[in-house]
Amino acid sequence: MTETTEAVLDADGIQRLHYVWIDLELTGKDRSIDEIIEFGIIGTDVGLNVMFEYQRVVRPSAAALEHLEQTPVVMQMHTDNGLLLDVYKAAHGPNSIEQVEREIIQILRAYKRRSEGPLILAGSGVWHSDQHVLAKHTPRLRKMLADRRIVDVGIFRYFYQEATGKDLTPVNDLKDHRALGDIRLHLEEGRAYRHLFQGAA
User: What span, in angstroms and rounded, lies between the C-alpha atoms of 20 and 185?
Assistant: First the structure.
């Protein structure tokens, strides 16, 4: 496990929120139908030190839930990891996607943020997938994150695998497809790559 560094402070002695690490669990992979059913978020400073964690199961629409139930692979995965049961409970709860988006925005606004520009979205698969899902279902949240500066550790992983024939970390063997647990693993993966890059500098 890669250890964290000490909190990174700016010239004014302030630890600033820099990266927003996000993992989403969805009802499936069809962006025209499927919806977010779980958020896992970790906010870190530029040194990848944790400033907050957030997890929430989201109430899906009836159509999205039906699509999940008709997709055997997704149904089995979320049955095994307990998310489906939590989603059924959320179906009668207050956590609409709009409510969850408001909660996340309030959390982000509560911190001093990086002064060089918008917060940076980070995670695995965030470049080709999550950023587009966020833009569709949580557009106000997406607008708080930088448009082009995105840290996708999945891209680093594939490039490292091609160069060395192995993984830098066993992250994919440990994932259970629950959002907070998975994003913790991807943050740890990010720390491993950061350590590797610093050693080569």
Answer: 14
Residue 26 phi/psi, 5-degree rounding, is: -120, 165
Residue type, 161: Q
Q: How do the domains of the chain map onto residue ranges?
A: 19-200
Alpha-carbon span 200 to 115, nearest angstrom: 27
Question: pLDDT class for 5, splitting at 50, 70, 90?
Answer: low
Which helix (H) or strand (E) element contains residue 98? Answer: helix 97-109
Q: What is the pTM of this model?
A: 0.94
CB 40 within 8 A of CB 181: yes
pLDDT tens track for 129-184: 999 999 999 999 999 999 989 999 999 999 999 999 999 998 878 899 999 999 99
- For residue 194, what are its two tokens? 């950061």
Q: Which CATH class is domain 19-200?
A: alpha beta
Q: What is the 3-state secondary structure (H, E, C) of 136-191?
A: HHCHHHHHCECCCCCEEHHHHHHHHHHHHCCCCCCHHHHCCCCHHHHHHHHHHHHH
Whether residue 45 contacts residue 38, with contact meaning beta carbons closer than 8 Å, is answered with: no
